[in-house]
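As promised in the previous annual report, we have extended the structural survey to additional targets. Below is the entry for Pilus assembly protein PilP.
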Amino acid sequence: MRRVYCVGLLAGLLALAGCNSDDGFSDLDAYMNEVRLRPPGKIEPTPTFRPGETFTYSAANLRSPFSPQVRMDQAERQQGSRNVRPDPNRAKQYLEGFNIEQFEMVGTISNASGSFALLRGAGGVHRLKVGDYLGRNDGRIVAISATQVDVVEIVPDGQGAWLERPRTITLKEHS
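The corresponding structure token record, generated without further manual editing, is:
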């Protein structure tokens, strides 16, 4: 038994002696000493970037490329009237700052003062009555029914006169 004990003790001492050896880290110590002896380097400043040219999108008021083009023959083209024109002195209403295409009818409500159309668009649902304006072409609401809102817009005819263009906003069900 004593012999096994001596062999185990000798193996333990050899293992401890192997852990105490500096040979495993000598290459790392040499590299660290070399790095410490180098002169301090300069840190380069961050590069400066030129700002890009600004771009202003100027086609916002043009026809959407996703809506169909309206083609009219010159013979069939309506002539505008000099009597029809937008009122430049009228105060613009809030909903006239938005395209009429973005509005959809979602319902109607009625009370003692009359019937109103509920139109969704411009960030919310708006209650409108006959005579209110919406859209960028001086669109005036002329009739409200349970299924649609009739609007008349005043648009230029391209020859210095103005046309009244009827539009209908139909009820969107399941919205």
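Strands lie at 104-111, 114-121, 124-128, 133-134, 139-144, 148-156, 162-170. The chain has a mean pLDDT of 82. These points will be discussed at the next consortium meeting with the crystallography subgroup.
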